[in-house]
Amino acid sequence: MKVFDIPGFPNPLRIRIVLAEKGLASSVEFIKVDLPAAEHKQPAFLKINPLGTVPVLQLDDGTYLSECTAITEYLDHLDGDPVLTGKTAKEKGVIHMMQKRAESELSDPVGFYFHHATPGLGAALQPYKSPEWEGRVEWGNRQRDKALAGMQYFDQVLRSQPYIAGEQFSMADITVFAGLIFAGFASIQIPESCTALAAWQAKVQERPSVKNPA
Q1: 38 forms bridges with which residues in the sheet?
Q2: What CATH topology corresponds to 2-77?
Q3: CA angle, 81 then 82 then 83, to 5°
Q4: Is 133 exposed, middle or buried (0-12, 13-18, 19+ CB in 10 A)?
Q5: Pairing of strands 64-66, 2-5
Q6: Where are the domains of the chain?
Q7: CA 141, 143, 145 angle in degrees (round to 5)?
Q8: Which of 65, 98, 67, 73 is nearest to 168 (CA)?
Q9: What CATH code is assigned to 89-208?
Q10: Segment-wise mean pLDDT, segments of 10 residues, the chain, 214 residues
Q11: Start-to-end CA span in the chain (Å)
Q12: Model pTM score
């Protein structure tokens, strides 16, 4: 298998943690994609993923999988022992619900803020952003506020359970953790009142898969 990504970026980090959790890192060849140079927006890469995003997993039969949730599902089920996406119907339902919330209430708003209200990754990507419109920065700042509200939501969740989707570490935890990494990069700090979220982040940082991702 091959993974097209770039080290240190939030979504690639999600899959690298998954690979480490599943013990699959040695089974994968990593192909670096130069995001600051807009390599992911060029015709060669768009043939791999028309949406122009990373990571992308190439299977041994040549199939390409994009989207972190889809890639995680595939990798988690390779050994017949899914530990990140749930075993029972209830576990799967709750994990996927919280996974969606992790994206819509935290990681996506951080991304919108970063790309629309800040210089983002630099000049090379400017032509691929949405055209300028009146109020664009204000809209981006509202997304920052949404991300902060998302942090407060997950803080409340973690006051009554150890992990985002319940008693076990799951892909929803990986997504929230990567979202917080992205938020820090975008200078969005966890509110001081979110003590449960901060404690959870510190706990997750000690996981071997997080300390030493693929």
Answers
A1: none
A2: Glutaredoxin (3.40.30)
A3: 110
A4: exposed
A5: unpaired
A6: 2-77, 89-208
A7: 75
A8: 98
A9: 1.20.1050.10
A10: 95 98 95 94 96 97 97 97 97 98 97 85 67 74 96 98 98 98 96 98 98 92
A11: 13
A12: 0.94
